[in-house]
Design brief:
The complex is a heterodimer of chains A (about 850) and B (about 120). Chain A has about 850 residues and is of the alpha+beta class. Helices cover about 35% and strands about 20% of the residues of chain A. Among the domains of chain A are: about 50 residues; about 120 residues, no CATH class. Chain B is elongated and about 45 Å long.
């Protein structure tokens, strides 16, 4: 940058410098003198424009630098936000003073004198620590991500607006009766969130991510809360399985598809409700038909569009554990309960830990920011946790259309007009997009390329599930708990229960859709005959109370035996059941169990599948000529306890072998039949098949794929073993003892805004997808999102989640709970009074 | 002396603006200061200094009160600079400086043109 002397006051030196040129005759000198100030002005204008542009507007990955880095109101305020100190503040809408105590680890305790104030203060506390997360979650469900993140989020927004979380939430809100306690809770909660937004805006304490992304949060409404509940329902129960099976059917044929994707699980599972069951007159599920080319093409187009969406919008493999132990098997003499729901592990976590105390509520546990109640926890008399029940809640329908009847579909013998809903999708940095969603009687049309496909999804049924959760948290015994769950719709959950009188129970509450006839594991005809006709009666859903065995457990397994008379879904909707089998194995062992045993089981790394397959593999290898490295690998397996520990080399051999065995068996089919589905997407189901064939049908035709020739399971195992050892040798060296599991298996807690440097890990981790300590994949990003153990006999309540209470990465409460969780330890769940008297607690006094 | 008083006054005004959330205050202050000061070689660096001070002082106070290390690292991470916490600090001070400098230079350049066209 040069400064032009011409703009300054005349000075002797400059005059001297200017004289020679002034002495020059003619236009050149005049132009030079005249040109310098103009050039200077032009330079100044360009620099000013550039500075102001960068200051006012975002450019590439950089935010608008002015507001973003303003030291007093910009992103630097996250430093002040990270400080949590004693304070008194006034909140609009409060009826009475409220006490909030924050433990040194961030756990919040809200004690209010009215229920209204309890939920208002909960909304305030949630928003104080998680407002950006809450805003992201409502934006996701409401199709408003592109408004702040631009074009890259448009597909997600379109998908969500098609699916209809917002429509359902609006309908639910309109159906909430005036004076209903859950309506009052939603209104009070929204007020609390808005109190925090107003406070944060006035004190420039909004989460820094708002500043960096460059927008302000809108007012919170009860509908936003209902949408967030819908987000969770979607993650746990919206399923593309029928589309996947249709594609496989189109490639492999109906016979193989029905054999490999059966209705009932092909392997041994451990149902928690063994019957007897009520009799029911339900139509049997039809044999799988061959799908047409048009159906296959339509399914492929839809499958590809779903594949392009971010992970987490569709249900993937389930993984959660819970169980309860009766006093007869408990060291303390009281009932035990343990729960660890497995979800995507993010920073901040999906959970926020708190206690709520008011005239009608005394509950402790974890809540989802954006919602007013505790989802998993305990009160003074009962404790509960939940796992996904995994039944089919998504049904696809091929709508019959005709060019002579535009914008109509044929249903129940007549042409019906599609309802239409119009949406605008604002796009940051781009033009607002418009979309029209068509609705048939089944639900939204979600695929229009080829055949028109609509979807019936349980999550689109208006429900009062939040009210159910509030009643659950107030229940004092099994009857009240069970009665509250009568109205629970979706997602269907296995609710485990224990109480202070020594009772235990488990019930798979929710909607179990039944169809009149048809093949629900494929897209069905939308003309009416295959419609959902209702649900399994509440008294007939899987459930058990105080069983003679003295324990109950669920881990997304098939809940019932094959005698159960109702349709739940096909086997590939469910988990393969290895975690459930392992939990059952431990709980059914002789002897009594303590809270410490519960914690140990939550971090159990024994792979049940390995315990079944490895002996068979060793037998197959007994006659095989092996290289020294292969012999060493075989010896590792022979001396292994089936535990997927980070220092176990056998664990690496087993896991690599199993992947290789799957590939050896199924990849030739995938290649020769050009299957359009990624094999990895259906590995859980294929694994059950392979397990079953290996143990009971070693000459199944699946081992003799086209181009492979006739062979047995043992031959496939030997080939897979050679390849597995070769793979490990290539990547980890020739010393088999050095192939420890921690070298190839890690876990990562992903930052919610996908800022990799604000994530935790990847860090070497034990467990795998089959172990109670769930850690699927080579870099696991999902797993036990909360662990809780309750021992009523000892009066102990403990819990932990991986993360921290604050979403602010500069806060000490961003990752402070991770290490405790990683080590498999839990933290005491203090009552509000215990917390108030604890050292280093922070106290807030909220005044009306 | 008058120059120093004017400079101090301008810096205080810019600082007050920044404290009120008006992050563009250094630009306006630099503009006004430079419009009053005929000598570009003084006005433009002074504008830059006003901008730097008005953003540096609140940042230094915040560091003293809360410690900005973790925040700087977090901001660097969000911006894709790993954990290089110095980068957002430098960037922040640069923004303040450039705002003051741009305002001062613009006013100074306009002054240079206006008399010449008379």
């Amino acid at each position: 940058m040069t400064l032009e002397p011409a703009v300054e006051a005349p000075a002797p030196k400059q005059e001297a410098r200017a004289r020679p040129s002034a002495a020059r005759p003619g236009r050149v000198a005049w132009r030079r003198r005249r040109g310098r100030p103009l050039l200077n002005l032009a330079s100044a204008l360009i620099v000013t424009a550039a500075v102001l542009y960068a200051a006012f507007l975002p450019a590439g990955p950089l935010p608008a630098l002015g507001p973003a880095f303003n030291p007093t109101t910009g992103a630097w305020t996250m430093a002040a936000d990270a400080q949590v100190t004693d304070r008194m503040l006034r909140l609009a809408g409060l009826q009475q003073p409220v006490r909030v105590v924050l433990e040194s680890n961030g756990t919040a305790h809200v004690a209010a004198q009215t229920d209204h104030d309890l939920f208002l203060a909960t909304g305030y506390v949630h928003a104080r620590f998680r407002l950006f997360q809450m805003d992201l979650m409502r934006r996701q469900g409401e199709g408003r991500l592109a408004e702040v993140f631009g074009k890259k989020a448009v597909d997600t927004d379109r998908f969500e607006l098609q699916l209809g979380l917002l429509r359902t939430a609006q309908l639910e809100w309109s159906q909430q009766p005036a004076g209903d306690p859950s309506r009052e809770a939603l209104v009070a909660y929204a007020q609390g969130v808005n109190d925090r937004i107003a406070e944060a805006e006035s004190t420039h304490q909004l989460d820094a991510m708002f500043t960096l992304v460059g927008y302000q949060p809108k007012q919170w409404t009860p509908i936003d809360t209902l949408v967030i509940k819908g987000d969770m329902t979607q993650t746990l129960s919206f399923d593309d399985t029928p589309i996947v099976v249709a594609l496989i059917n189109g490639s492999l044929g109906a016979d193989l598809a029905s054999a490999w994707f059966p209705v009932l699980p092909p392997n041994h599972q451990s149902p928690y409700d063994p019957g007897p069951y009520p009799k029911a007159a339900t139509a049997p599920i039809e044999t799988m038909r061959a799908i047409t080319d048009a159906e296959a093409q339509s399914a492929e187009a839809f499958y590809q569009s779903l594949e392009s969406l971010p992970s987490g919008l569709l249900k993937t493999e389930g993984a959660s554990n819970n169980w309860a132990v009766a006093p007869s098997k408990s060291v303390s003499g009281g009932a035990l309960l343990a729960g660890d729901p497995h979800l995507d592990l993010t920073l901040p976590s999906i959970w926020f830990q708190l206690t709520q105390d008011s005239p009608d509520f005394h509950v402790a546990g974890v809540s989802i920011p954006g919602t007013p109640g505790v989802l998993i926890g305990h009160n003074q008399h009962i404790a509960w946790s939940l796992t996904d029940a995994m039944n089919q809640q998504t049904f696809f329908y091929l709508e019959k259309q005709d060019a002579a009847h535009p914008n109509q579909y044929f249903w129940n013998g007549a042409w019906q007009a599609y309802k239409k809903v119009e949406y605008d999708i604002p796009v940051a940095g781009g033009a607002t997009q418009h979309m029209t969603v068509k609705l048939s009687v089944h639900g939204p049309v979600i695929a229009d390329r080829g055949l028109t496909t609509s979807v019936w999804w349980g999550g689109n049924l208006p429900s009062q599930d939040l009210g159910v959760l509030l009643r659950v948290s107030q229940a004092t015994d099994w009857k009240e708990f069970r009665d509250a769950l009568r109205d629970w719709h979706s997602p269907t959950h296995n609710f485990v229960y224990s109480d202070d009188r020594g009772n235990i129970g488990l019930i798979s509450a929710g909607y179990f859709p039944q169809i009149a006839k048809g093949q629900p594991s494929l897209p069905m005809q939308g003309t009416g005959e295959s419609d959902v006709t209702g649900t399994i009666p509440f008294d007939a859903i899987p459930q058990s109370y105080d069983p003679p065995s003295g324990f109950l457990w669920s881990a997304n397994q098939w809940q019932v035996t094959p005698d159960y008379p109702y349709y739940l879904g096909t086997a590939n909707f469910y988990d393969p059941g290895y975690r459930a089998n392992e939990i059952h194995r431990v709980l059914s062992a002789p002897g009594k169990l303590s809270a410490a045993d519960m914690m140990a089981l939550q971090t159990d790394t024994r792979d049940f599948l390995a315990s079944e397959i490895v002996p068979v593999l060793l037998l197959a290898l007994s006659t095989e000529q092996l290289s020294p490295t292969e012999s060493a690998a075989r010896d590792l397996l022979a001396g292994w306890d089936y535990r997927m520990e980070t220092n176990s080399a056998a664990a690496s051999v087993w896991w690599t072998f199993w992947q290789s065995y799957l590939a050896e068996t199924f990849d030739p089919w995938w290649k020769s039949r050009s299957v359009k589905v990624k094999r990895a997407d259906v590995n859980a189901m294929l694994g059950q098949d392979l397990e079953s064939w290996t143990l009971t049908d070693p000459v199944n035709q699946a081992f003799s794929a086209p181009g492979v020739g006739s062979r047995s399971a043992a031959e496939a195992q030997r080939a897979a073993f050679h390849k597995a050892v070769s793979t490990l040798k290539k990547s980890l060296g020739s010393n088999a003892r050095s192939w420890t599991w921690g070298r190839i298996h890690t876990r990562e807690l992903t930052n919610l805004a996908l800022v990799s440097d604000l994530s935790y890990g990847p860090r070497a981790e034990r467990g795998d997808g089959n172990t109670p300590l769930a850690a699927g994949g080579t870099n696991s990003t999902a797993g036990p999102s909360w662990r809780m153990v309750v021992d009523w006999g000892a009066g102990s309540f403990q819990g932990i989640y991986p993360g921290g209470q604050s979403e602010n990465p500069a806060s000490a409460w961003y990752t402070n709970l991770v290490d405790t969780w990683w080590e498999g330890r839990l933290a005491p769940m203090l009552s509000a009074d215990q917390a108030a008297s604890a050292k280093a607690a922070t106290r807030w006094s909220l005044e009306p | 002396m008058r120059l120093y008083v004017a400079l101090l006054l301008a810096a205080l005004l810019a600082l007050a603006g920044v404290l009120l959330g008006w992050w563009w205050a250094p630009f306006v202050t630099g503009l006004v200061f430079s419009a009053q000061e005929r000598r570009a070689r003084i006005a433009v660096p002074a504008g830059a200094a006003i901008g730097l001070c008005s953003w540096l002082i609140p940042l230094a106070v915040a560091h003293e009160r809360y410690g900005l290390g973790a925040t700087a690292q977090s901001l660097a991470a969000v911006m894709g600079f790993g954990h290089q916490g110095a980068i957002p600090v430098v960037l922040t001070l640069l923004v303040g400086t450039l705002l003051g400098l741009a305002g001062a230079w613009l006013a100074s350049a306009v002054r240079g043109v206006v008399p010449a066209t008379r």
